[in-house]
Amino acid sequence: MTSDLFVKMSLSAWKTQNTRLDELLAKLSDEQLMQPTAPGRNTGTYLLGHLTAVNDSLFKFLGFGEMMHPELEDVFLRSPDGSGKTMPTVKQLRDYWSEVNTALYIKMDAMTAADWFAKHSAVSEEDFIKDPHRNKLNIILNRTTHQGYHLGQIAYLVKK
Amino acid sequence: MTSDLFVKMSLSAWKTQNTRLDELLAKLSDEQLMQPTAPGRNTGTYLLGHLTAVNDSLFKFLGFGEMMHPELEDVFLRSPDGSGKTMPTVKQLRDYWSEVNTALYIKMDAMTAADWFAKHSAVSEEDFIKDPHRNKLNIILNRTTHQGYHLGQIAYLVKK
Known about the structure:
The structure is a homodimer of 160-residue chains. Chain A has 160 residues and is mainly alpha-helical. Chain A is globular, with a radius of gyration of 16 Å. Helix content of chain A is 64%, strand content 0%.
């Protein structure tokens, strides 16, 4: 019962951040998204790709399977903006963002509280016994803050 | 047991954000903090005051008592940057930030899991029965993301 409540609180906080990005994307044109969020800083396009790749990588961490778009990993998780690596178009990135989240929500909504408190895929059984907070739900807590961090930057593309 | 774990996970995520601001503050001079985080956007000073006021207001929401610096509320929670209202100096704000957090940690560390799952001060008994996720810990989850949001902006003051 209490576990169900934590899961609800955590997932709701994470989904709220996804919705906030949806709202920002609805406000920003492709041209605006292609601009740096501040002089010399990441573009909106790069941050959209980055946040999509981070959500997409949840399929692995939560044990659902592989990324839907593994090609995003190299460009948006391992390389900085302006690396010269081939990027999808802004239009494609907008589609991937929605597609990844829709698929993730279906998988997540089918999980029980016990599933969420199980270890995530990047921690060993041995370490998990020592640190039981390294569970799947903790990944969601961390990803929520990470989304907030970049949403604060993408928000700078919205004209005042 | 699971409740204790969830409290630990949530508080640890929130404290991590406080520590990240400590690290940014150690890197940034007062002059750097006084700059806008991007052209036409909030200054680092305003955001430091804002985050301090938000943490300070936790004394009320968590039922510990009044804000340590109630004068911050009008300038940093109810008014935008550049309102012309009297601001503390950057030096004072740095001190308040540490002081508020030190006092908060002492109060928080003395709370039990049951305390955290009780309703926060801004929700009625009646609404709490309908929405038990509106508990004290949920405030911490929300504040953590809020901190992340502004940390992403303050980080733009650090020279690349």
